[in-house]
Design brief:
The structure is a single chain. By secondary structure, the protein is mainly alpha-helical. 55% of the residues lie in helices and 10% in strands. Strands 1-2 form a two-stranded antiparallel ribbon. It is globular. The termini are far apart.
């Protein structure tokens, strides 16, 4: 899976949005698959028009490691972008990320439908809530 700085570089390199959408879909294909058992009400992200699931785990050093999936190709790619932004970070570090600014730097805020934008916000809120709960424990 690409890290966020690599995604930023690729977005800058890809000039038009048709190519960028293809890249987003390609990123979604790189996600580690979730099992049927992991697709449940506890992992489902509420507020998304498409179905989205996020599973939180921790690496050996206590850093966050999310896995996710969606039933929609572009949304699955958005999941991959969000995970690239947060995975590998300590919970307290994840809470300091200005995800809106990072994603705006990709131009996503201007090129997503209102439904996809709301779903993206719901994913970010879920990750922040999980990071806050992890930081508090």
């Amino acid at each position: 899976m690409a890290d966020f700085s690599e995604i930023e570089d690729n977005f800058e390199f890809l000039g038009d949005w048709e190519d960028r959408y293809r890249y987003v879909i390609e990123l979604g294909r790189s996600l580690e698959p979730l099992s049927d058992d992991e697709r449940n009400d506890q992992t489902k992200v509420l507020g998304c028009a498409s179905q989205v699931w996020l599973v939180r785990a921790f690496d050996d050093d206590g850093s966050l490691h999310f896995r996710g999936d969606s039933d929609a190709h572009i949304v699955r790619g958005l999941v991959a972008i969000v995970l690239a932004l947060y995975n590998g970070r300590q919970p307290s570090e994840a809470l300091e990320i200005d995800a809106q600014a990072s994603l705006a730097g990709l131009g996503l805020d201007e090129h997503l439908s209102p439904q996809r934008s709301n779903g993206l916000k719901a994913m970010l809120e879920r990750i922040r809530a999980d990071a806050a709960a992890s930081a508090a424990s």
